[in-house]
Amino acid sequence: MKRFIYALCGALGSGVFSYFLVNAFSFWYGPRYIRSDSDINTVFLWSLIFMAFCMIFGAALGYYRGRSRSRLPQ
After folding, report:
1. Contact (CB, 8 A) for 4 and 33
2. pTM metric for this prediction
């Protein structure tokens, strides 16, 4: 259960972080380079792929963080 909670927190944390990163990028990119609906669709698709990758990466990091650590024999 501990691994699941760590993975969930990692996925949510990295998802929120990637959302704010994509939002900041869109404020810069939108007015300069978007000229049509096709441009918007392309950028939106890549943003979703990036956020999904970040969530998977964050969940994996959380899962490995939640593992119990082996102790050295005394």
Report:
1. no
2. 0.83
